[in-house]
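Hi F.,

I've been meaning to write this up properly since the lab meeting, where we talked about keeping a consistent format for the predictions we share between groups. The idea is simple: the sequence comes first, exactly as it goes in, then the structure tokens exactly as they come out, then a line or two of notes. No screenshots and no reformatting. I'm using this chain as the first example so we have something concrete to point to.
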Amino acid sequence: MKLSEDIRKLMEWEIPQELLKVYSPDEWVIGCKGVWGDFLIVQEAAERLGLIESTRIGAATARLFDAKSIVDLYEKLLIESPYRMFGIKNEKTD
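Output, unedited:
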């Protein structure tokens, strides 16, 4: 799916040189760029739809789910409300 240009611009950024001096790119991978969709929105929707089964393993919470169902839901939410998913107030829709 294709996101709007204003959202795609927010997802692009360069790693600051100060970080590259400390974390050399040939030894480290910095895996986060710009804004990302708020996956908690997806999790909450999936739990409401019964797509996630929660249990406990010792003191830890474990969530079990079919990955394709969650990815499909994520795509649906991005299509329906991309600005909400990225925490961006959009005067056209908000």
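Notes:
The chain has a mean pLDDT of 83.
The longest helix spans residues 67-80.

If this format works for you, I'll send the rest the same way.

G.
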